[in-house]
Amino acid sequence: MISSWLNRTVLRLKALKRRRQLDRDLDDEMAFHLAMRAAKLEALGGDPAAAQHAARRRFGNIGNVKEQSRAMWTFTALESWWTDARYAGRSLANNPGFTLVAVLAIALGIGVNAGIFSILNGVALRLLPIPSSRQVVSIDQIFHGKLRRNVHGETTLVSYSEYLSYRSDNHVFSGLLAYEPFLMATLASAPPKQLFGAAASCNYFAVLQIAPSAGRAFVDSDCAAPGTNAVVVISDELWHSSFAADPAILGKAIRLNRVAFVVIGVAPPGFTGTEPIPSAFWVPLTMQPSIEPGREMDALGDANLSWLAVLGRLRPGVSLEQTRADLAVISARLDQRHPGAFASLAIRPATFLGRQEEQSFVFGIGGIILAATSLVLLIACANVANLLLARASARHREIALRLSIGASRWRLIRQLLTESLLLALIGGACGSVIAFWSFQGISGFLLGHLPRNFPPLALNLAPDWHVLAYAFVLTVITGIVFGLVPALQATRAELNTALKEEGYGAAGAARRGGRLRNTLVGVQVAVCMILLLAAALLMRGLYVAQTVDPGFRMGGVASISFDLRSQAYDDKRAAVFQSQLIDRLASLPGVDGVAQAEHAPLDDSHNQTNFQLPGGHGERADVDHLEFDNVSPAFFTILEIPFVRGRNFTEAESRSGANVAVITEAAARTYWHGADPVGQTIGHGKKELQIVGVARDAQVARLGQHPRPYIYLPAGPEHQILVQLLVHSAVPFRQTETAIRSAVHMVDPDMPVDIAPLADNLEIWRTPSRIVAALSAALGALALVLAITGVYGVASYASSRRIREIGIRVALGAGSRDVMGLLLRQVMRPVIVGAVVGMVVCAAVSSVLSAMLFGLRSYDPLAFLAVPVLLLGVALLASYLPARRAMRVDPITALRYE
Amino acid sequence: MTAKKENPGDLLQGTLDLLILKALGQGSQHGYGVAEWIHATSEDILRVEEGALYPALHRLELRGLLAAEWGTSENNRRAKYYSLTAAGRKELAQETEHWRRLSGAVARILQTA
To answer: What's the whole-number mean pLDDT along residues B25-31?
Structure first.
């Protein structure tokens, strides 16, 4: 069977090479037959002409026979497709204006989609850049039920003992590794450098199949006992940036968080670990207590602490299902340790940003953005469909003619679809190329301009086959979506009317086409309205965010952050450091206040804990989970947060860590309902805290939300190792900064310190909404341009079709006002319907949006007024211009038109 | 599509193929010769529309049952000569056997009725 098919294909391919020869052979063969037959008949008696005629009669339809044979010898279907494609190419080339506009619209639509997808792909879908990355899976542990779990990082991370269980009891992995992600350490150098790295199990490099470019990777003995093997593998980048690619680095010691580590290897260039933030170093997991001193946790010993990310390399031939089943057994056994709760495992191919929380975040945001870009593509499709409709009615007679001489409808539809697919492919290719190029630039720019608290990100946005496949599939779908309806419409002609009419357009078809065109315009305007309104709402939200009053003073305040724990301080040394530094800072020129706070206002993280309060809403009637901060009395003074009742902490209370608390107005309202809380007590752990004052609400924990209950506690002796400093100074920040830095280094020359204006913390809150607003403004602008092009196209088409009618009306004495009104009404009706639909839909969607981003109100009157006015105004202009052109035509010319 | 719509005249397609194979069983022959042989041996009872022979010949050639070669005819004209391949000979034997059984069965049915 297969061999005969092969034989046929080979013969056909041979035939393909000599098409003319084949045709000549066929001709010769038939001619030979006819000649022989005619000769025979002639020999039987009869004149030559009659004999030839009889021979032909006996032979049958020569053309038909040739056609059959030719079809057998060639790839007919393929060739007719090729003919279609060539025809489509010619017809596109003959209408450069149409082609250009259509390709541009598609390129914009596809390009913006492909670009966004390439970012999403680079962020969350791309497999890790390691050998045989398909075999490597990440494992997340998701707990259900009531469980008190200690968390260092994310809740889906596993504990050390859980990791050991999975590692020893599984039957599916050739290796299972664990590491503590985002480990921060200070490299002792001049100046000290903050690095991100990882504490990794000693099979880390073996499982990932990454061989160091110099030296060796970890071996099992490096992880033999906690705290005994201070060795480190550094990244190629760190080797170059901090050690000038010193070839003798191996065997030298470097100091990380003041502990000496011996460099045993340099990772190969380009390997930066398995997290989006590049790792600069890797130390054995068992060195965690040494590199993170002073944490009140026993990471290696606490079986109930989430802190390790886990990656496993599957044995060849093991499926994800088998892996899930195998690990579920282990996880069920581990569940016995904590009654009342159980864990389910999320196992998926390992990517950057592969953990559960990261994935749901990225795909949530990505989904919304892709939805918006698909809307832009939809507008582009409607545009091109409208162009094709207009073109189809210009080709009405051609299509009717082809139908009437026997072309099947399917054949014509196929040809029209080939044309739209060709358009889509050209547009898609242009759009994708531009997108891949420009989005890498755009995201590079964005990553380069993140606020200072954002760590550097390693994003590979180069298009891989995921992105190419996405762009291609999207292109094909696009081509069919905008091509099918016009093709069906165009080939449904009534032959008689179509052939008879002289360019007026068959009444029936024209009306149907008109309705379709109006629907398309309506959809475009509606979608455009949604995008523009969403963009406007986001921009308004951004404006509110920029101008919100956080309720405390930011001007002139600098925040000074350092991590005493990682610098191997203990409580006693920390207290000395703090008091010496405060003294030095207070004596700087211009400084009129120095305050301590564990978390500076609007820091990117904040403390939460349980407090016992009257009438709480938590698990117990009197327990609530509240945000709090440990501060010194000066905190309220330099931030200008006034007291509405009672008093501030005293210096003495702060120094001794007395059992007192200051609560906020919101807390007073929530728990004491207008009664005076001063003098009352709240429970905090085993301590009873007496409330000494009520401070005005301020947005110290998060920006732009309704005030929530908040507690201030005095920064006592046990907090000295934790607290940061806030300084208010009358002199400009640039000068204070230098003075502060030298003050810190006079107290401890090796202390890494970060000094920034407090107002910078606003950026953490504003950056996401700023990026989203910029993106949505760009998308909105794109949508507006596309939709208005659509309205303009339809308006010019409608006007040009009615030039004769206008001529007659004007000749009969109609005023130009009436005629103009007529034309505008015709085009604006679907526009207005679309606009109203878009506004209604957006009103529904905006309440969802307002919940997601700070500062966004769902029914912003300004947005809901300005956007429709803008959109309708531009649409009116787009329909007025063609109408005016049509009216300027001299009635005599108009009557002769076409 | 059009390639599949054959027009075998008054004959079933398989029958025409069998007749062609049988005709070429006598030795290599051109299309006209095949037509003449069918007319002669069937005493003009089987009326084949002569043109229908050619698509059938080409189909058999593509299936590898026939080999084709250009040669010179008895009256010195360029003509395409077909001959059976090994596969064609096997097919001829099979189809002949099949046809015998079928026609025997039909004959028996007609007798009993």
So the answer is: 88
Read off the CATH number of the domain in which B92 is found. 1.10.10.10
Instruction: Tell me, yes or no, whether B95 lies in a domain.
Output: yes
Contacts of A356 (CB under 8 A, 6+ apart): A140, A142, A154, A156, A346
- Cβ-contact A765, A545 below 8 angstroms: yes
Phi/psi-derived region of residue A602, left when phi > 0, alpha when psi is between -120 and 50, beta in every other case: left
Domain count, chain B: 1
CB proximity list for A492: less than 8 A, separation 6 or greater = A509, A512
Work out the pLDDT band at A493, boundaries 50, 70, 90. Answer: low
**Which of helix, strand or coil describes residue A142?**
strand
A8 contacts on B by Cβ (under 8 Å): 62-64
* H-run or E-run covering B31: helix B31-41
Q: Which of A833, A827, A826 is nearest to A868 (CA)?
A: A833
Give the pLDDT score at A294. 64
Measure the CA–CA gap between A780 and A786, rounded to whole angstroms. Answer: 10
Q: Which amino acid is at A423?
A: L
In contact, A766 and A545? CB cutoff 8 Å:
yes
Backbone angles phi, psi at A296, to 5 degrees: -85, 50
Chain B, residues 33-72, CB within 8 A of chain A, namely 35, 49-52, 54-55, 58-59, 61-64, 70
Q: Collect all residues of chain B within an 8 Å Cβ-Cβ radius of residue A32.
A: 30-32, 73, 77-80
The strand pair at A173-187 and A193-200 is best described as antiparallel
Q: What is the ipTM of this complex?
A: 0.84
Residue B31 contacts A, CB cutoff 8 Å: yes
| Domain enclosing residue B33, as ranges | 8-112
**Of the listed ranges A303-307, A683-687, A843-847, B56-60, the one predicted with least confidence:** A843-847
SS3 B84: strand
pLDDT at A649: 92
pLDDT of residue A504: 46
Least confident of A465-474, A721-730, A818-827: A818-827
- Report the C-alpha gap between A92 and A100 in whole angstroms: 9
Q: Please determine, for residue A527, whether its predicted confidence score (pLDDT) is greater than 60.
A: yes
Contact B51 A61 (CB under 8 A): yes
Chain A contact for B3 (CB, 8 A cutoff): yes
Model pTM?
0.72
Return d(Cα A420, Cα A91) in angstroms, integer.
11
B78, part of any domain: yes
The answer as to whether B1 is a domain residue is: no
Is B96 inside a domain boundary?
yes
d(CA A525, CA A538): 20
Instruction: Name residue, tokens 């606003």.
Output: A762
Counting every residue, how long is chain A? 898
A709-747 CB burial, b ≥16 within 10 A, e <16? bbbbbbbbeebbbbbbbbbbbeeebeebbebbbebbeeb
